[in-house]
Amino acid sequence: MTARSAPEDKTNFIQADLSTAGGTTKVINEILNHFHGTDIIVHNVGGSSAPSGGFITVTDELWQQAINENLFPALQLNRVRNRWWHNSNDLTECGNNSMTIKLPPIIQKYVDASNKHDVKSILSCVSDDAVVRDEGKTLHGEKAIDGWIMKTIEKYKFQFKPVSIKDEAAEVVVAMEVSGTFDGSPVTLDYRFAVRTIRSYLSQLISEQI
Predict the structure, then answer these.
(1) Residue 80 domain boundaries
(2) Cβ pair 187, 174 in contact under 8 A
(3) Same domain as 54, residue 101
(4) 201 DSSP β-pair partners
(5) How distant, in Å, are the alpha carbons of 36, 114, 126, 131, 165 from that of 161?
(6) In 3-state terms, what secondary structure has residue 36?
(7) 83 shares a domain with 99
(8) What is the pTM of this model?
(9) CA torsion sign, 127 to 197 to 27 to 78?
(10) Which residue spans within 91-210 are E strands per DSSP?
(11) What crossing angle do the helices spanning 60-70 and 72-87 adopt, rounded to 10°?
(12) How far apart are CA 83 and CA 32, in angstroms?
């Protein structure tokens, strides 16, 4: 929780002025230091001190103040958060012969464990309530996902090679060249990961044919 004035209960509270660049940067830095990331930002800072009389009475200074209070904090919070996401030293480089792709650590861990066919390590990457969508089926929870992992390893003997990465809304989309004991190998699939950054788990994985 963030505000200009501190409440009596200061548990998980950051005192900062979100209408300034310094205030929003302070909030993000405090979150990263304590939690190492964010899942959701709820921004409800806002208000107006414009006088009565309609838009004709609103000066440039009042317009700027309103923008700083209502729009700028949300923009700046997401800008700083995204900058951290893309440039953090915690990102892992996944290399091949011609290019280097930076993957978030939990996704790199998932790829490495998958290529080793290490069921226990793969399962440790996903949350207890994770959802997997693959080959037209939706799987919920650890037991179902455990069975899916073992079945696909046994059936396809797959190997992953990340090709590209991009952010789409709340997902990280990794295009992967997938090879194995199946017709048409290798193929390139989009893997859509939803990452819970605070505890670093995958909460959703969707594979799609490109």
Answers:
(1) 2-87
(2) no
(3) no
(4) 196
(5) 27, 11, 20, 22, 12
(6) coil
(7) no
(8) 0.56
(9) negative
(10) 92-95, 100-103, 126-134, 137-140, 159-168, 171-179, 187-196, 201-209
(11) 50
(12) 12
C-beta separation of 148 from 139 below 8 A: yes
Q: How far is CA 107 from the centre of its chain?
A: 11
160 and 188 in a common domain: yes
Please tell me whether residue 18 adopts helix, strand or coil conformation. Answer: coil
Please indicate, yes or no, whether residues 174 and 107 belong to a single structural domain of this protein. Answer: yes
- The whole-number pLDDT of residue 39 equals 61
Total structural domains in the chain? Answer: 2
Task: Enumerate residues 6+ apart whose C-beta is below 8 A from 51.
Answer: 57, 58, 62
Q: Are 190 and 207 in contact (CB under 8 A)?
A: yes
**Largest interatomic CA distance in the chain:** 73
Query: Positive or negative, the Cα torsion across 109, 165, 193, 116?
Result: negative
Sign of the torsion angle spanned by Cα atoms 130, 133, 137, 138? positive
From CA 35, how far away is CA 203, in angstroms rounded?
Answer: 17
**Domain final position from 87, 117, 137:** 87
Looking at residue 119, its pLDDT comes to 95
Q: What is the pLDDT of residues 49-102, one digit of tens each?
A: 777 777 778 888 888 877 777 777 777 777 666 655 555 444 455 544 445 678
